[in-house]
Amino acid sequence: MRLNDISWEDFETLSLEQKRPYLEREEGDGLPYHTLFAQQFDRSLLERLCALANRIRFINKSREGALYLKSVLAHKRAMLYFSQPSSRTFLSHLAACQILGVTTGSVRDAATSSEFKGESKEDSIRTFSSYFDMIIMRSPEQGLAEKMAWELSNSSRSIPIINAGSGKDQHPTQALLDIYTLVRSFENTGGLDGRTVVFCGDLLRGRTVRSLSYLLTRYEGVKQIFVAPKELQVPQDVISMLEECSVDFEVSTNLKDAVKKSDAVYMTRIQDEWDSSKGASAKIDTSMFKFGAEELALLKEDGCLLHPLPRRDEIATCCDRDPRAMYWRQMRNGMWIRAALIAATFGLEREIMGCGY
Fold this sequence. Notes:
Strand content: 5-15%
Number of domains: 2
Radius of gyration: 20 Å
Number of helices: 14
Structural class: alpha/beta
Helix content: 25-40%
CATH class of the largest domain: Alpha Beta
CATH topology of the largest domain: Rossmann fold
Largest sheet: 5 strands, parallel
């Protein structure tokens, strides 16, 4: 099945699980052609991508290996189309492309493109596809990456799209780096299966929470605890998904109690850019949903503290030098797992895993 086998109207009505086969590579290897949402990744695919990321970072340690990696996709070009503000996600994808030798171009503000003149997003994407072999896009518009993937797949030049964040719904590559960080954090202490993961902060509007929560269902016996003010608690669609997957979860307002039970804590900032009226989030009392020295003392010795960044005051800086603070490692892990995803999208998984470096 390919996206040019189905109308947009019919594709739009499918569940995310039903959409998955339409987004895979023609080679039938289970790898994504378009990466649009977390539901595309099962346990096997996550393990393959983590292994590929490990292999790429190992090869890159030597000069000879780094030069080899820079040659594998030197014939490809990627467009970084970021119409929503970003620094980490943009630079992480840029660095991932550079590791693989991919030449890049970028638009980081629609006001600097022909959209400012009234050009439609569809026409902008078609234009980019004329010059590049992949589009990595971030947009405040929910579902835009899916629509553009369908448009390109039904054009004369189909190229893959990687969703680097779409509205409030999905951020699949962030979820990949979060899983990769968790897997690496627990690789010497029994693995990720059977762990308890706490999410805290703005869970209502945090697309990273939605995507990671789903990927955690791919692991056995992972309990999820959601800690937030009632106004920002995890939305019903995530709850319904967890119930459908028979996942053990709790909804709470007590961060300290949750930390005592946790193996990993995933903090998030208040997403006030989505406020319906200016200053609406500031009226919510978030004082009990911050992680500091007291919470750190309650975290297990082999636990870990994550944050997708940027942060404000939801994690105190006194936590930064603790070995359980993983948010800086998360950023570096993002570069490696995104390099793995780009390499896999272009069909290089087997070559890189089997190379002599």
